[in-house]
Amino acid sequence: MDRLIYLDNAATTKCAPEALEAMLPYFTEYYGNPSSIYSLGAESKKAVSGARKIIAGSIHADPAEIYFTAGGSESDNWAIAATAEAYGDRGKHIITSKIEHHAVLHTCEYLQKRGFQITYIDVDENGIIKLEELEKAIRPDTILISIMFANNEIGTLQPIAQIGKLAKEHGILFHTDGVQAYGHVPIDVEELHIDLLSASGHKLYGPKGIGFLYIRKGVKIRSFIHGGAQERKRRAGTENVPGIVGFGAAVKKAFAGLEERAETERQLRDYLIAEIEAKIPHCRLNGDRKRRLPGNVNFSFRFIEGESLLIMLDMKKICASSGSACTSGSLDPSHVLLAIGLPHEIAHGSLRLTLSYENTKEELDYVVEAVSEIVEKLRKMSPLYEDFAKKGTEQE
Fold it and tell me: Is the dihedral of CA 329, 1, 9, 252 positive or negative?
């Protein structure tokens, strides 16, 4: 196949034409600072307000509860660090899970060095947190529970409604990293009892460098970036007007066709999973088979090294990953795969394929053929596989 096949939509998506078109005038025509009092600035302020309203409606929030940021990592950092600062006099205990994005885990590590205690909840073999363990971990000094909505590597959807209910019953704030889920599955912050939610524009066909943090009214967390009075004095800095406008346009498109798009991606996902399992031996699907993001497929292949697989797929014009794009330079196996119980040697042989509604079965057939061919080639070079095959022959 001559054209590029892009299967790394969890890392980033291409910008939707509607988002790009909406952004362009705010680079050259309506370039005023939203904080200005003249009409050119008022146009920018109006555009920001319009996008805020669209985004708030998408999660059943009030526009005054949406705060624009530079992306998901900033939103995660702000939610956790500022909550710790604001509520530290009530307690210094935070609960999270072992499979969170590093934007959450590293912020928790930062807080540990400053006297906070962090409990990391285990997950089962499919990457779903253990609710009974979560409830047992709650203490009188627990101030925050932070559990991601959907895992960025294996796509597992967490029982957010039950977690939110549990947090509310105990009077604990609940933050969820919704970066992978937002725009791909329905989210109602009221029904799910979510107090803080992080999201990012470039995961749902919007521009990079823009995100938001939902902060429920009454949650008393403080500014994360100090300076001016932007974002109702909670996040200083001149607003990224083109990014915000593009984000709003992408959200409008994403939620208008969410169910139809998700169903298309689910069908493609299940087709790809079935084809890989049927045609490539000694593979393991990572994550829950049903409770997963519509476009997420994650496999581990025994007796191979994931990085070699990715390089060889790239030579065939297939874009894929072995896990989070934020840890692509690390030689360590995925902390998510280790948390679900995979040994190091199998975790190293992982492949994440994240689909778009624009992918086709023809493309997926080509990908399965390519992965099968490459895995077979890499196994022939593996002394571990040679030993495994020899033992199997001897047993026969």
Answer: positive
Q: Evaluate if residue 393 carries a pLDDT over 60.
A: no
C-alpha 23/C-alpha 4 separation (Å) is 26
What stretches of 109-195 adopt beta strand conformation (E)? 117-121, 142-146, 173-177
Shortest CA distance to 268 belongs to which of 152, 353, 182?
353
DSSP state at residue 138: -
CB neighbour class for 89 (10 Å; exposed up to 12, middle 13-18, buried from 19): exposed
Where are the strands (E) in the chain, listed by range?
5-6, 66-69, 93-97, 117-121, 142-146, 173-177, 196-200, 211-215, 283-285, 296-301, 318-319, 350-354
What the block records as the tokens of 206 is 């919007």
Contact 69, 75 (CB under 8 A): yes
CB 212 within 8 A of CB 69: yes
**pLDDT over 90, % of the chain:** 91
Residue 240's CB is within 10 A of a number of other CB atoms, namely 20
pTM: 0.95
CA distances from 322 to 242, 290, 298, 379 (A): 32, 21, 8, 18
Task: Please report the DSSP string for 218-281 in residue order.
Answer: T-----SS-SS-HHHHTS-S---HHHHHHHHHHHHHHHHTHHHHHHHHHHHHHHHHHHHHHHSS
Query: What does the block give as tokens for 204?
Result: 């749902």
Interatomic CA distance for residues 261 and 214, integer angstroms: 25
Query: Where residue 386 falls among pLDDT bands split at 50, 70, 90?
Result: confident
Report which of 378, 369, 380 is spatially closest to residue 306, judged by C-alpha positions. 378
Nearest to 131 by CA among 172, 104, 164: 164
For CA atoms 126, 129, 130, 133, the dihedral sign is positive
The residues annotated as belonging to the active site are 326
